[in-house]
Write a structure and sequence with these properties.
Elements: H1 3-8, H2 45-48, H3 50-63, E1 67-71, H4 74-85, E2 91-95, H5 100-113, E3 116-120, H6 125-131, E4 137-143, H7 155-164, E5 168-172, H8 177-180, E6 190-193, E7 208-212, H9 217-229, H10 235-245, H11 248-266, E8 272-275, H12 285-291, E9 299-304, H13 307-317, E10 322-323, E11 333-335, H14 337-341, E12 351-355, H15 361-372
Parallel strand pairs: 2-3, 2-4, 4-5, 5-6, 10-11
Antiparallel strand pairs: 1-7, 6-7, 8-9, 9-12, 11-12
Helix pairs in contact: 3-10, 4-9, 11-15, 13-15
Length: about 375
């Protein structure tokens, strides 16, 4: 079955007991043993609950991997992978452009645990090649498209460079989603999602996910760390996530089309610079065209002439776009990342990040146009 079908039917999940077409929530935290003291199924809910297990099978199928793990948040998933794979003396390459909270955590973690760290713009393959330390670099963490300026990393080339140096590659594909990019097909060893965003899709569940290319010892170590530390996804959250994923393709394809349309229309406005991989003017547009399927994503950013004061004034004048953190929901959000991230951020002070939802494109554009107008 094609990915759209796998998602819509949640792997053709029909409840055997009732025939229900919606997978049930299993809320039990523990499970009885039979007269011989043998388990009939799961043993304990922390990492054996059937509802998160179903979610993991769907995510693995969508990414084309043999296994997936879900976590209590995207940060829980990312930090589990890095901590399970890296030991003191190892070298990690992290994204200079990417999720600000993960970058800050990487800096603190590596300083505390004696892990060497370089922050690199991984869309610059020459810079990545220079930063790699053969035999020492353990992990290269890539985010593509890179939040909030949306650089695109050539995943095939970056994975080849990293593997030649003996390093593993993990890709944060939150913004791309399995709709647009499947990093395992380009050579990645791990894929990470903040499932709170597009996979959940309704701004009502906190979750994270990892997908592996191989069921190897590294993957076993990540699973063991999750088991030991308990950063697992609860059954109700897993149910909400599964419900959201069943409309993933419909939502993401629609919002991606709208984002592309908005990016082209916004070029017509004065005082605006548009950052979107689908535009021919984007520095990595050719890579995005080759690497991304079904569109270029639902995220774009605009820079407003006049710096931070002008950008914040645009936000104040908006009537429809919601000024809020996060992305990937059905409602369109706008955020001034410089304010949120603080003075150490690499985000330009004039930049506004737009997460495009499912509203009518004319309404979204008209609101932006009136807010940007002199």
């Amino acid at each position: 079955m094609r990915p759209e079908t796998l998602a819509a039917q949640a792997l053709h999940a029909i409840d055997e007991a009732t025939g229900a077409v919606v997978p049930p929530i299993h809320l039990a935290t523990t499970y009885a043993r039979d007269a011989s003291y043998e388990l009939r199924g799961p043993g304990y809910t922390r990492d054996e609950n059937p509802t998160p297990g179903h979610v993991e099978r769907v995510i693995a199928a969508l990414e084309g991997g043999p296994g997936a793990l879900v976590f209590s948040s995207g940060m829980a998933a990312a930090t589990a992978a890095i901590r399970a794979l890296c030991k003191p003396g190892d070298h990690v390459i992290g994204p200079r452009i990417g999720y600000f909270t993960l970058r800050g955590w990487l800096e603190r973690f590596c300083a505390r645990w004696g892990v060497l760290l370089d922050l690199v713009d991984t869309s610059d393959l020459a810079a990545l090649a220079t930063a790699l330390r053969p035999g020492v670099t353990r992990l290269v963490w890539i985010e593509s498209p890179a939040n909030p300026t949306w650089q695109i990393t050539d995943l095939t080339a970056a994975c080849a460079l990293a593997h030649a140096a003996g390093a593993r590659v993990a890709v944060d594909s939150t913004a791309a989603t399995p709709v647009h990019t499947r990093p395992l097909e380009h050579g990645a060893d791990l894929v990470m999602h903040s499932a709170t965003k597009f996979l959940g899709g309704h701004s009502d569940v906190l979750a994270g996910a990892l997908v592996t290319a191989r069921l190897d010892e590294d993957w076993a170590q990540i699973a063991l760390l999750r088991h030991d530390e308990g950063a697992c996804l609860g059954p109700f959250e897993a149910y909400l996530l599964l419900r959201g994923m069943r409309t993933l393709f419909a939502r993401v394809e629609r919002s991606s089309r709208t984002a592309f349309w908005l990016a082209e229309r916004l070029l017509e406005l004065p005082r605006v610079t548009v950052r979107y991989p689908g535009l021919a003017s984007h520095p990595q547009h050719a890579i995005a065209a080759r690497q991304m399927q079904r569109g270029y994503g639902s995220m774009l950013s605009i820079q407003i002439e006049g710096g931070a004061p002008a950008a914040l004034e645009v936000v104040r004048r908006l009537k429809l776009w919601v000024p809020a953190t996060s992305l990937g929901g059905v409602e369109s959000l706008i955020e001034h990342r410089f304010t949120v991230e603080g003075p150490t951020t690499p985000t330009p002070p004039d930049l506004l990040r737009l997460s495009v939802g499912l509203e009518h494109e004319d309404d979204l554009f008209d609101d932006l146009a009136q807010a940007i107008a002199p």
